[in-house]
Write a structure and sequence with these properties.
- The protein is an alpha+beta fold.
- It has three domains: about 100 residues, Tumour Suppressor Smad4, CATH 2.60.200.20; about 200 residues, Beta-Lactamase (2-Layer Sandwich); about 220 residues, 4-Layer Sandwich (Phosphatase 2c, domain 1), CATH 3.60.40.
- It is built from 13 helices and 26 strands.
- The strands form five sheets. Strands 13-12-11-16-15-14 form a six-stranded antiparallel beta sheet, sandwiched between helices.
- The protein is elongated and about 100 Å long.
Length: about 575
Amino acid sequence: MPQTGAHLQRKLEDTPTLEVVSPDHTRQTVHLTEFPFLIGRGGETGNHLQLGDPRISRNCAAIVFRAGGYYLEDRGHRGSLLVNEKQLEHRLQDGDHITFGLEDSYELIFRSPNAETSVQHALTLIGGITGSEIPSAGLGKLNLLLEATSLLHSDLPLDSVLDTMLDHAISITNADRGLLLEGDSYGSMRVRLARLAGSKNLPVQGLTPSQTALRQALERQSSVITEDLNRSDLALQAAQSIVMQSLRAIVAIPLYAMARAANESDAQPHRGHLLGVLYLDSRRPTAFSKLDRQILDALAVEAASILDNARLVERERQRQRLEQELTIARDIQQALIPQGFHSYPYLAVSGIHTPCHAVGGDYFDVFPLSDERTAVLVADVCGKGLGAALLTTMLQGALSSMSIGTDPVSVFNHINRFLCEHAEVGRYATMFFGIIGHDGQLEFINAGHPSPLILRRGEASELYTEGAFPIGLLDEAEFTATRTRLEPGDTLAIFSDGVTEAMDVQEKLFGVPRLKEALSGLHEAPLVEVQQAVLESIQKFTRGAVQADDITLLLVRYGHEEIPHSDAVHGIA
C-alpha cells in the first residue's frame, strides 16, 4: 500500500516549520522533523539548517521539544539570539521571529503545527474516499483512528504511546494479536512490543511473525493485507510459520519516517528511512470492507507518525536526564575547585576557572605540603565534557597524595604509566606542577603545559621554553623536576591554553604576547586586580565570541613578608 503524496503532505503539515528569510530576501520553508533541530554556520557540526553568514557561529542555536512545546536554545551564538527582538529562552509560538542580532542577516519565522489539523485531515481522508454514509461499525473504527491520531501530540511515555497505538490497530482489524517490530543494528527485524486482543501484554520472547509476509511488505515498500491465507499466493500459504500457527489472516504494514524537506523547491515529498513494521495476524479469516482498507491506509501513515513523534519525545526526555546528570557532575566539579585559599605567610593566591561546557577538562589547585612548602598546579585534560571532567577528578585525587610526603616525580611517572596501560581511556593531560618554598625556591615539573609567566619588576617573561610530553601520552616518558628561585614580589601566572588560544570573531588567537602585555606594569597591584585586568583584556579581544576551550588562570605572588591573600574566584560559562 504505497503512501500517496496527499498522505505525505499531511505528515509534513503535522510538523513545525521555519520560514527562512535570507539576507537577499529570498525565502524557503524547512520542516522540523528531528530534535534537537540544530542551526548554525556550515554542516560540519551536524547542523540541520545551515546558514551562510560568517558572523553566525558554527554551533549557534537549537529548537528542542520538551514538556509538550517547542523551545529555542542558545547553543553558542557569538551575538544576541533574539525572539521577537527579545533575548530570552522562549517557548516558540506560531509566527515568532528569530534573529541573530546582526544587520543584513537571516531571519527565521516559526510556524507551529495544529493538533486539530491532523484530526480534520483524517476525517477528510476517510470521508472523501468513501463518498457514502459510514455504517455504525465503521464509525467505531474511525473513532479509534482519530484517537490514534491524538497520540501524535501526547506527552505520555514512549512505551505507553506504542501500546495504545498497537491496541487500536488490533481493534480496527479485529486481529488476535499485534506486534511492533524494529530494525536492529544488524539489519534484522526484532519484536519490540507484542499485544493480544483485549489490551493484554504478550511476552516478546519466542514470537514468530510470518517472515514471508514481512519480507514481501519490505520488498514492496507497501502493506501486505491477506484476508484468507487459503486464497493467497503460494509463498504465503507454504510459509512454515503460517502453517505451524494455523494463521488465516495477516496484515504487515511497513512504517516509514517522513523525509526532511530541504526547501520549497523540492518536488513531491518522499518517504524517509524505515522505522519498523506493524504486524497483525489472526487464526480466523477476515473480511475487510472498503472502509476497513481505507482506515488501514490511514493507520499506516498515523502509526509511522506516532512512532516517529514518540521517539522524538523520548530522545528529548533522555536529553533532559543527561542535562540533570551533567548538572550533578558540574556541582561536584565546582565543589572540588578551591573556594578559598589557606593563609600563607609568604604567598598570595588568586584563581579563576571558566569551563566552556557544563563541565570542564581544566582544574587548578593549591595545597600545603608542609609549613614551609606549598604545591600549586594547573592541569588541562584533552577533550571536553564529562569524560575530561572524570579524569581531572582522578588526577586531583592522585596528586593530593603528595601532601602526605610522596615524591612528586615518582607520582607523575606512576600516573603516566597507569594512563598509558589503560589506553582505552583515550585521554591525556598537560600539567604544570610547582612547589614553592618559604625561601623562594620553586621546584616544578612540566608535563607538556604552556610555560607560566613570571611578572617581575613590571615585565612578564616565560619560565621555560623547552617542550615536554603530556602525562598519559607516551609510556616511555620520564618526568623530572627543575629548580629556580623566585624573588620577593614575583608573581607567577599559571594558565591553560584556553587563555592564550581564546579567539576573536575572525578566529585569531589571543596569544602569549597579549597576555604579557595585559600583565605588564601590574607587579604591585592586588592579585584580584591583576586577574580582572587579564580577563578584561581577553573579553575585549574576543568581543563576545563563544570559546571552544576552558579558561583557567592561577596567580601566585611570592614575598618574605606576609601579603594579604585573595580568595579563589571561579566562574562557570
